[in-house]
Design brief:
Number of helices of chain B: 0
Largest interface: A-B, 29 and 28 residues
Strand content of chain A: over 45%
Number of helices of chain A: 0
Structural class of chain B: mainly beta
Mean pLDDT of chain A: 88
Helix content of chain B: under 10%
Number of strands of chain A: 11
Distance between the termini of chain B: 36 Å
Structural class of chain A: mainly beta
Helix content of chain A: under 10%
Shape of chain B: globular
Oligomer: heterodimer
Largest sheet of chain B: 7 strands, mixed
Radius of gyration of chain A: 14 Å
Order of helices and strands of chain A: EEEEEEEEEEE
Largest sheet of chain A: 7 strands, mixed
Mean pLDDT of chain B: 94
Number of strands of chain B: 11
Order of helices and strands of chain B: EEEEEEEEEEE
Radius of gyration of chain B: 13 Å
Low-confidence stretches of chain A: none
Chain lengths: 114, 115
């Protein structure tokens, strides 16, 4: 039930763009995105809800394809501070019993070089 | 407003010992949870609670107990520590009972080593 993230790692130069994908085998109600820097706690970036609502970071964009059960995080004009591990977390549809559980992907390591 | 506070930050246990990881939040959040993080495995849910007196199991509950007697506190108990429980443990809370549209706020983690 763990969502699958791709790619596992990506290396960028400052100013370049990146896309991180998150796929689930279950029907989703919402997708969360978090970033974790080494030795620190994960930090909330964005929530995407079924129906198109988004909450989160102004400088980061994301999409949520309900039919394909996929979400993508778009990092444009990357900065050094974007480096870290990005995790998606998925909450299954409200018709199920697991709405209280957020299941995380294995993470995508993003490294931005000067 | 301290957010989510975890203690201790580091702990070394011997196999078979028991201990309690503490988690407290001062944001009046209904939802609290415990995750463990192992290299290459992401964050795996151990137990969660949607309010005082209500707890439920996550993906990897074996070997761990929880209780929620107050809104603020959600301790995690290791009953008999095993080397497989060596990990970084994160406590997280959220305003809403359902995680559908409320973000998780994480504590700074407890690094546990079991020898």
């Amino acid at each position: 039930q763990q969502p699958v993230q791709s790619p596992q790692a990506v290396i960028l130069r400052e100013g370049e763009d990146a896309v991180i994908n998150c796929s689930s085998s279950k029907a989703l109600y919402s997708v969360h995105w978090y970033r974790q820097k080494h030795g620190e706690a994960p930090v909330f970036l964005m929530i995407l809800l079924k129906g198109g609502e988004q909450k989160g970071h102004e400088k980061i964009s994301a999409s949520f394809n309900e039919k394909k059960q996929q979400s993508s995080l778009y990092l444009t004009a990357s900065q050094l501070s974007y480096s870290g591990t990005y995790f998606c977390g998925t909450a299954i549809s409200a018709g199920g019993t697991s709405y209280g559980k957020l299941t995380f992907g294995q993470g995508t390591i993003l490294t931005v070089h000067p | 407003n301290a957010g989510v506070t975890q203690t201790p930050k580091f702990q070394v246990l011997k196999t078979g010992q028991s201990m309690t990881l503490q988690c407290a939040q001062d944001m009046n959040h209904e939802y609290m949870s415990w995750y463990r993080q192992d290299p290459g495995m992401g964050l795996r849910l151990i137990h969660y609670s949607v309010g005082a007196g209500i707890t439920d199991q996550g993906e990897v509950p074996n070997g761990y107990n929880v209780s929620r007697s107050t809104t603020e506190d959600f301790p995690l108990r290791l009953l008999s520590a095993a080397p497989s429980q060596t990990s970084v443990y994160f406590c997280a809370s959220s305003k809403g009972r359902q995680l559908l549209n409320s973000p998780l706020h994480f504590g700074n983690g407890t690094r546990l080593t079991v020898t």
